[in-house]
Design a protein that fits this description.
The protein is α+β, with helices and mostly antiparallel strands and 168 residues long. The chain has a single domain (2-160), classed as Gcn5-related N-acetyltransferase (GNAT) (Aminopeptidase, 3-Layer(aba) Sandwich), CATH 3.40.630. It contains four helices and six strands. The chain has helices at 2-6, 23-35, 90-106, 120-128, and strands at residues 46-52, 59-67, 75-81, 111-115, 132-136, 152-156. The chain has a three-stranded antiparallel beta sheet.
C-alpha cells in the first residue's frame, strides 16, 4: 500500500500537528476520504487526489480541496508531497491545477490555504499561487486549538484569480 508507506516518514508531519498513524487508522481515513467523493460541491466535502510522478507513475503525495473545519462552509486547498520529492515543483503543479478546478469547475468565489510560519516551502507555494495574507490564526478551540498562533491564513477571491490554461 504505497499511500501508507509514504506516510510513515515523521518528517512529513513537522508542521501539521499530526503523527505517523498505524495502518488501521490510515485505512479508516482513506475510506472516509474516498467516501466523500460522492458529496456534492454545495455540501461539506473533502476531495483528495493522488499525485503521481509522470516518469514512473509512482505515488508521491496528494493534493485536495475541502471544508476549512474552523470556518465551515469555507473551502481550503491542501497538499502533501513525500520527502524524496520536495523541491521539484510537484506541490505547486498539483496545487495550481486544483486551484483552477476550484474556481473554474466548482465555481468557488474564494479559497483558503494555511501554512505554519516556519514552513517556508509551503508559504512560497501559496504566495506563488497568488494567495494574499489575511491573518495569524487566534482564538480557535477544540480540535483546531493547535493552529492558534502558529498558522498563517491566506485567501483568494475571483477578482485576484487568473485561470490557468492547460494543454490537455
Amino acid at each position: 500500500m504505497e499511500y501508507f508507506e509514504l506516510m510513515q516518514n515523521p518528517e512529513l508531519f513537522t508542521y501539521l500537528h499530526m503523527d505517523v498513524m498505524p495502518l488501521e487508522n490510515y485505512k479508516r481515513l482513506f475510506h472516509w476520504l474516498r467516501s466523500s467523493y460522492d458529496t456534492p460541491f454545495d455540501k461539506p466535502f473533502k476531495y483528495s487526489v493522488a499525485i503521481r510522478e509522470k516518469a514512473t507513475g509512482r505515488f508521491i503525495g496528494w493534493c485536495g480541496l475541502g471544508v476549512l473545519d474552523f470556518l465551515a462552509p469555507e473551502k481550503e486547498l491542501y497538499y502533501l508531497i513525500g520527502r524524496d520529492y520536495w523541491g521539484n515543483g510537484f506541490a505547486f503543479e498539483a496545487a495550481s491545477a486544483l486551484t483552477a478546478y476550484a474556481f473554474d469547475v466548482i465555481g468557488l468565489d474564494r479559497l483558503y490555504a494555511k501554512a505554519h510560519p516556519d514552513n517556508k516551502a509551503s508559504l512560497r507555494i501559496i504566495e506563488k499561487l497568488g494567495f494574499s495574507f489575511e491573518r495569524v490564526l487566534d482564538g480557535l478551540t477544540g480540535d483546531d486549538e493547535d493552529c492558534n498562533g502558529e498558522w498563517l491564513y491566506y485567501k483568494k477571491g475571483p477578482a485576484l484569480w487568473q485561470p490557468l490554461h492547460f494543454p490537455f
